[in-house]
Design brief:
With about 190 residues, the chain is of the alpha+beta class. It contains 9 helices and 5 strands; from the N terminus they run E-E-E-E-H-E-H-H-H-H-H-H-H-H.
């Protein structure tokens, strides 16, 4: 059961890195929200007003999460096609492919890929075997996000902790975690292995 999406006074919303903007809700009215941004450089608060729709749009665009655990996914609720779309986008970006390049490999239009990535199924089922093949994963991994196949790998306790944390995240937050790790690797001047 999904929690209904509600903006409330005293909620704190934090956008995804690298910007990571933090917005505190001060007032909620029928059509608008009054909020302030967390002061980092200035000691005073600047109150801002936007429409409820404008605030919701910011949540979606910045992939923000609230202090009480809500996220952009809360606005729409759970959607298997949206989760598969996010998985396609994650795998495509990890492979360094544009939507057009991926569409060309698959033999579909760029528009079809865009539909899939935004959670509109648009006849994706017949392409699943080829999508899995392009990304070098099994259909099970593509559809479920993991495989029940057991693989023996030696890892440190720190690495095991990271894996457990990663697995506990939603698909949306997994994307954010990967983006953040890639940013940190680039910041350290190291390459990212394929």
């Amino acid at each position: 059961m999904t929690t209904p999406f509600v903006l409330k006074v005293a909620q704190v919303w934090t956008g995804a890195p690298p910007r990571g903007e933090v917005r505190h809700i001060d007032e909620v009215h029928e059509g608008h929200v009054v909020f302030h941004k967390q002061a980092t450089r200035r000691p005073f608060l600047t109150y801002r007003t936007t429409t409820v729709m404008g605030f919701r749009k910011w949540i979606q665009q910045s992939q923000a999460v609230s202090s009480d655990g809500m996220s952009a996914a809360s606005i729409h609720g759970f959607s298997p096609s949206r989760e598969i779309g996010q998985r396609i986008q994650l795998l495509r970006k990890a492979a360094g492919l544009s939507q057009q390049a991926f569409a060309d490999l698959l033999g579909v239009s760029r528009t079809a890929v865009g539909f899939w990535e935004t959670g509109r199924p648009n006849r994706i089922s017949r392409h699943i075997p080829r999508i899995a093949q392009i990304f070098g994963i099994s259909e099970e991994v593509f559809l479920n996000g993991r495989s029940e196949e057991k693989v023996r790998v030696d890892i440190t306790k720190d690495e095991a902790s990271i894996i457990e944390l990663y697995r506990s995240l939603s698909m949306e937050n997994r994307l954010q975690a990967i983006k953040r790790m890639e940013m940190l690797v680039r910041k350290e001047g190291r390459g990212i292995s394929p």
